[in-house]
Amino acid sequence: MYQKYYRQFLQAAQNAATPECPEAMLHMACHSHHYWPDVTLDAVQQYWQDAANLADAKWELIFGEKIPAFQRAIADTLNLPAPEQIALAPNTHELVARLLSAFDPVKPLRILTTDGEFYSFARQLLRLEEMPNVEVVRIPTEPFATLPQRFEQELCSGNYQLAYASQVFFDSGVAFPQLLEIAARKPDATQMVIDGYHAFFARPTDLSAIADKVFYTAGSYKYLGAGEGMCFMSIPRGCQLRPLNTGWFAEMAELENRAEGVGYGDNWLRFAGATMDYSALYKALSVLELFKHDGVSVETIHRYVQENQQRFLAAMDAATHPLLNRNNLIHHDLENGHGHFFTFRCGSAENAEELQAELRKKNVLCDRRQQLLRLGFAIYHPQDETFARLFT
What we know:
Layout: H1 7-15, E1 26-27, H2 39-54, H3 58-78, E2 86-89, H4 92-100, E3 109-114, H5 119-128, E4 134-139, H6 147-157, E5 162-166, H7 179-184, E6 191-195, E7 215-219, E8 231-234, H8 279-294, H9 298-318, E9 341-345, H10 349-361, E10 364-365, E11 367-369, E12 372-376
Helix pairs in contact: 2-8, 3-8
């Protein structure tokens, strides 16, 4: 059904078959490196052609047409009312670091988050905590059923300048219950960031009610399938934060007539950085335009993946695998509480490493985080894929 978009990657997977394992590579690390649709190759070549034909004038095309088109596509996907409020950068860490730099470095900074955040933010917090004015409170993600109550209670009872939480946790695949509703009720004095990377273009997301209350970050490397280097952050309208980490792109509107002092625009350029490789923009835009043209929505992608997950669960339940079983699966609620990958507790990092190696011999590619083994699902998995080979 959707495999027609990924012919080149799927051909490479077929070429990975061996006499010992004649089946094509089954790529189940799509929550990490997602296959790219074929249109991305044409997009990279078009970027080169535009650079060759336009030279410096390519910036007029990029900033005048390509970036606004990308912003509109992101806004349509997330139901955001102001596309011009979507900032771009090569990675989300750059955007979040720029946001962190907007807080006064000599005043107390209290940050509320969870113990399940991705490494880039978690590492940055550990470094920030070395500063005497920074305090971080981490709410345990488990038990997931009570996470909303525990997080919101702390959010409303503490004097926090920043709250940060993932829409889908990178290690477990579990969706933060009621996160958008909590964001709608957050204290006005608290800036809030939702890390949407493991939900964007996977789980249907409507940010219209909180567009001017939160910063939302995501990018093209995971489920959009457009590769590295193209990330974004939505910015609440009326935001007056002045990032200390500010790039020259933030002066884009005044390059010809620079004013005294450091000014900031009222759109995405407030959080703009500096020169980057926009081939990633071309790739991401090509996928967004392809799916829009063909009527492939996040809702249809999500339903398709859930069907894959149900077939996987059926094959798992029919087997008696010592590690891949219901007892070790972190979360079961596909309708309301899960992203597009399953995570299994393997008891130890050694068990997870051995299982990953066993699956690799069966031409099943997956990944792990310490004792956790992760198995992802994508629209490039065929409808007749049973996943039975994982359990034999």
